[in-house]
Amino acid sequence: MPTRYRQTGFVLVLVLAMLVILSILAGTVALITQRLVEQEVQRKRLEDAELDFASTKATVLYLLLTQRMTFGGLTVDESIVMNEADRASSEGMDRPIVLTPVGNEISLDGRAYAGLGSTAFSLQDDRGLLGFNWTSASSMERWWAQLGFDALPAPTLSNLLLDFQDKDDLYRLNSAERDQYESEGRRPPSNRPLATPLELRVVKGWDQALSSLDDSEVMRTLTNARTPAININTAPARVLGVLPGVDADIADRIVARRAIEPFANLYEVYGFIGIAPSDDSQMWLYPADSGTMRLWAPQGGTVQTIHWTLTPWDDGGRPWRENYGLTLPRDNHSSPPALARPAAAVFAKPLPEARKRP
After folding, report:
1. How much is the pLDDT for 301?
2. How far is residue 152's CA from residue 209's CA, in Å, rounded to a whole number?
3. End-to-end CA distance of the chain
4. Of the listed ranges 19-33, 99-113, 241-255, the one predicted with least confidence
5. Pairing of strands 230-231, 120-125
6. For the chain, how many helices (H) and strands (E)?
7. Distances (CA, A) of 165 to 124, 139, 144, 243
8. Which among 8, 93, 171, 179 would be 20 to 30 A from 231, CA to CA?
9. Cα separation of 195 and 326, whole Å?
10. Quick check: pTM over 0.90?
11. CB atoms within 10 A of CB 213
């Protein structure tokens, strides 16, 4: 073969090789660029989600601090509804104290609402939960019965919890102290009040009693706040079921009834249940000044749980206190079929941007 043809063939092969290399380089650059763009989009989404979380949290706290409460929950404007009793009691008052529901309140019963941006939230006041240090022994017994736990009697569970929190090492009946915890290889008692309901899982006996509940269920049922009474207008059905005369069916009917119209006095509750509970002090209708706020993104991720306490007269600090914060897995309560939108102007859905004229 002539040398001229061999050189031409070599050049052709070289050109083809260079084209292949350039194609590979171009594909690699395109792939890297695409990944960088995807990473930037994901980073922007995370930043937006964090901003939405922070904005929703701050907005809800602002409403809790500035708006009054009624039997229906947290008001969102200056509207006031007065019945005859309210008018009579507020005569001559510049700013009457009126608890009659307005109808557009943000409920504190764990109902899911649309927050700012891509965030959803719910509020639960502490009176709607079981205060494990304060709820009556009879109510706690009924709750253990709901769970089907009978391995330990209720008085023993109470003594185990008290000995875990008190400052001494003296034994109550059928209880446990530091030496027994250490002999079993367990974390010794804290000798202080529990900071969160989830700490109950390290208390001897309680770890077994709560084994059928996940962390989210524990947080939606129990509170470490001082709440001996149960708020009929905010307690979930499983908590209402510990009240005397309230079974699972009545508890469900109470939840359905108050979603239409909150109870405004205990006589309404008695008439609805059909009997008068033996201990009126266990029942309440007005929200507490503390509770939990849950924040999550409906499209996925975890749930942030914050415990708040309003301190409007605390001159030495902020007008609220965050007692603790937890990050928990999602559950069915974080994926409702639809989110209610609060009637508050600060949560109004933004209008779409006007189209630019050419």
Report:
1. 82
2. 8
3. 67
4. 19-33
5. unpaired
6. 10, 11
7. 25, 21, 21, 26
8. 93
9. 12
10. no
11. 16
